[in-house]
Amino acid sequence: MTNSWWELQILCDPALEDSIFWRLEDFGSRGTASEGKGDLCLVKAYLPKLPGATLDLELLSSQLHEDAVCVGSPIPTLSCELINEEDWATSWKQYWQPEKIGDRFLINPAWLPIPAAPERLVILLDPGVAFGTGNHATTQLCLESLEKVDFQGKSGQLVADIGCGSGILSIGALLLGAKKVYAVDTDPLAVQSTVSNRDMNRISPVSLVPAEGSVDMVMEGLQEPVDGIVCNILADVIIQLLPQMSNITKPSSWGIFSGILVEQSQTVADALEKNGWIVDNLLKKKEWCCLNVRRSQS
Ligand SMILES: C[S@@+](CC[C@H](N)C(=O)[O-])C[C@H]1O[C@@H](n2cnc3c(N)ncnc32)[C@H](O)[C@@H]1O
């Protein structure tokens, strides 16, 4: 059990915030927070201190340097200190407030009261150490895309959430009317987080089925193909998983693919087309985009 954490602090130009976020995710960060510091932005990231493991801060620092040079921004400064579990939990939680997403969702941190008569679908979340608080553009684009799915018109929909993180998208799909979601993540801590968020939102284990693994795990659990897939990972992982994801769908299935940088959208769209999908819509937020697609056989 982890009881101390590395806190990394990166002071940067706001234009670099998202690329730093993804570098940190890649580096093993379990939670990030950011705040304005005058004209600059202070990004904090938390990584568990694992026995015997060291942090390659030189590598991270040179990646941050390269990214800044690429976009002509000042070079960010990086510092690191060890903090205990309680400080980590408090540092992380103080940044996180209820947030409206799209037209229908309200993300409510689990430790804050729920509004008395919410007009929105409330997703209670304690992401723990998993990705998916709803405050990242890629997650928001997925929730906004899920709102467009006709869950009422075509009831009983089965959905696969590939890379479920905190389970936020699975819970969102179920609140909108999906019948059942198979949620998978290669990170066991993300699976634990999806289970606890499922229970906190009083969703039945029959409706939300989390498992450690990837598309192959969904395939193992399925009795029939899914009606829809939501996958917020990264462009290269989406491309790599596309043949398998296509294999678990029906000719009429829909897909929501996010975690794609705008400049990668054409490459992902081409890969989708090769795998029998048509891109219906492209949603953008900051430098991220999300592709709303359907099978071309429908
Ligand atoms: C960007 S997070 C998305 C979390 C959540 N779905 C959201 O939208 O906020 C991506 C998640 O995908 C998981 N992941 C990465 N590669 C994967 C793979 N090949 N198969 C399944 N999950 C993967 C990561 O562990 C991480 O939890």
UniProtKB/TrEMBL annotation:
Broad EC category: transferase
GO cellular component: ribosome
Superkingdom to which the source organism belongs: Bacteria
Keywords: Cytoplasm, Methyltransferase, Ribonucleoprotein, Ribosomal protein, S-adenosyl-L-methionine, Transferase
Subcellular localization: Cytoplasm
Pfam families for the chain: PrmA
Claim: Cell division is one of the keywords in the record: no
Protein family: Belongs to the methyltransferase superfamily. PrmA family.
Entry protein name: Ribosomal protein L11 methyltransferase
Lineage per the UniProt record: Bacteria, Bacillati, Cyanobacteriota, Cyanophyceae, Nostocales
Gene name, Swiss-Prot/TrEMBL: prmA
